[in-house]
Amino acid sequence: METFTFDSTSKDNVSLSKVVFGCGYKNGGTFNETGSGIIGLGWGPLSIINQLDKSIGGKFSYCLTFHNSNVSSKISFGSNAIVSGPKVVSIPLVKKLSDTYYYLTLEGVSVGKTRLEYNSNFNSNSNSKASVDESNIVIDSGTTLTFVPSEFYKGLESSPVKAIRAKRVSDSQGELNLCYELPSDGKFNSHL
Prior knowledge:
Layout: E1 2-7, E2 13-19, H1 48-51, H2 53-56, E3 60-63, E4 74-77, E5 102-104, E6 108-111, E7 114-117, E8 137-139, H3 150-163, E9 164-165, E10 189-190
């Protein structure tokens, strides 16, 4: 158990005591020397969000920057986590049985000016027009891959294939379909 002290925009510092905190040694996975730790942001009992719930009301937001950026990544808790301003869009998260995941409702995906609607037909053999199922997708910022039903993916994949003007290459691990060779100038040409 530790006492965490955070800088605050409204006070000098905020201290929270009796927070469960641990260290790992010989960790595996996709982490490397550029990472300095991992933080649990799920809804589970040991996540930092759950442990700080009385102080932050379950609210948090973050903005991650590139590893080599001159700008620091930021995480905000409580009332400071509310993001507002011009062109800001909020999407409500849905809590389900699992305390690990955040769910939201996927209505469609746009690539440039092309939009593919998502509906519950992709999860069944029905040909009738169906409405979008609430909380039909898990969002996980720590996962590289996005999984959608194959029928939906086929329609989705065709849009970037038409739009990206670059040489397609095979993924060495055989996992990804949309891999492209980076042009020598480092810029992709697209027709979006």
